[in-house]
Amino acid sequence: MIDFSYTDEQKEIRELALKFARNEMRPHAAEYDEKHIFPHEIYLKAWSLGLFNTSIPAEYGGNGFTNVDSVLITESLAYGCMGMTTSMMANDLALLPIVIGGTDEQKKKFLTPFTQSHRYAAFCLTEPAHGSDAAGITTSFKDAGDHYVINGEKMWITNAGYADIFVVYGTIDQTLKHKGISCLIVEKGTPGIEVGKAEKKMGHNCSDTRGIRFNNVKVPKENMLGKPGEGWKIAMKTLDRSRPLVASNALGGAQAALDHSIAYARDRKQFGVPIGAHQAVGFMIADMAMKVEASRLLITKAAWLADQGVENSEIASYAKAFASDSCMQITTDAVQVFGGYGYSKEYPVEKLMRDAKLIQIYEGTSQIQRLVIAKEIIFRK
Amino acid sequence: MNIFVCVKQVPDTETKIVPTSDGTFIETSSIKWILNPYDEYAVEQALLMQAANAGSTVTVLRVGSLKDTEALRTAMAMGADDSILIEAPDNLDSFMIAKALKGAIEKSGKKPDLILTGKQAIDDDCLQVPQILAQMLDLPSVAVVVGMSQAADSITVKREIDGGAIEIYELKLPALIACNKGINTPRYASLPGIMKAKKKPLVQHKLADVGVTDGDKRLKYSGFSLPPEKPAGKKFDASDAAKQKDVVSQVVGLLRTEAKVI
Prior knowledge:
The complex is a heterodimer. Chain A has 12 helices and 10 strands. By secondary structure, chain A is of the alpha+beta class. In chain A, a hairpin with a 3-residue loop joins strand 2 (140-143) and strand 3 (147-158). The relative contact order of chain A is 0.11. Chain B has helices at residues 37-52, 70-78, 94-107, 129-137, 191-197, 244-257; strands at 2-7, 9-11, 33-35, 57-64, 82-87, 114-118, 141-151, 154-160, 166-172, 175-179, 202-206. By secondary structure, chain B is an alpha/beta fold. Chain B folds into 2 domains: 2-216, HUPs (Rossmann fold, 3-Layer(aba) Sandwich); 231-262, no CATH class.
């Protein structure tokens, strides 16, 4: 009944994504990070190979991947660069609400174009004053007959400067709290969208992160996902599916840090032996390896549960918190294994450490994951 | 145009190779297999030729064990139409492999217009199968090809020779071409390609089905061992100006007699 093996097809999918990560992403990772270059050309190539938008179902032109397939792809891409992978995942994060809450018509209209040409999508939930407390968002959706009028401000929006569609969360009535949260698809070029300047960040410097202001933006009513007030439910279901992906981004980065550390611990000699032969270093690397494997198992289980249509919030939170916290520890230790060289930008591990930090923060901080888990295991069971 | 591509599945370049305990072959159980990199050029060239010649088919052939069908699946995911696997041990000699390929091509019922291979397999580096196969099929062949263009029923190929000089050949089809790096840039197998490859036909034959018997064996492997460990580098002290001349001639001598690089 228990089977940890991947299908031949899954092995090939992983091979392709890894090959792409090694040949196309990793060689540019340091430069794009340093110069803050958005890797549009690399994304075009990735899109043409089917590495983008893995969550679009086959009936709307996608590849019909399972969540397990998607996490395999994400982990492999992140092995090349966590920053580049962030933008790729952000597309899925923005398209998932449509996959989950969209009507057939909405799916055809908004998902299928993403399978016909390369486009970007942005998931707009967080606001300057509402991050973890997402149910308190103040962006307003005002009913104006045949359309809604959006007013409000969003923050830390990935792909904002390039997005063809924005999947925006707002409230129809703030007093209703999460029951007032709704979700609208806003197309690029709609009057009143004001995209802010690119944020300066610690890591993920090749990914595009901006604030967005919506000033009296009119959106047709048929662009609402689900009914008014169903946005929260859709957002939560989206996160159940996307958290394993985010966790996989951390996992791919952690695996890269582990592999760099192993190679360095074999080559680098101090006191006449490879540093990996010193227990102090060897044990650090053993810990890294255990955490990488444990992360992978948790992520795969969370994704597998989602594929079975089984409630996975709790395990998805385990996976997201564990994999991102592990990635932070592993990349920090990788810098330690490399010593002075690790702190230098000449070597790849300091970037991994900077990139790791963000994954503990975005799409639900490690603390929010623990909040979800604690609530679930203490009060619901 | 009926295009055949002969491929080999080889250990990944990052795989650690270990001889079997009886020394007759290498340990294959833990190997990660890949499509031989030179064969990727052959597959790509076949797909380019197919695109340029409407109605063409690309069939990929491989002789080897059933354990993993990585090479054929990769080729089909890149775009080849179908594939033929001739089941055999992974350590057949070049003559048996060529004979099996010939048998399978004939058995397919399709008359080959073009056969493409890599110039060599990166595992045993024999560089023999393309030439033996061409001889068996009585086809003109050129190996180590770095460029190829087509005109009506002939092709013009560029072949790299020592010193980087290029020979240019014109061949009438059918012919066999063994590809080298530089002839093209192999495409990635796309994800939709991988999904589609699953449904493409993969025909299997036994060696006997394609007319190969134990009597065809030309080569017996008597032993496999790892290359000796590289000795540590030598250091020469040339800080004393008076001795520099001696040191230099000593180094030059060793480069000539020991390292044999000049």
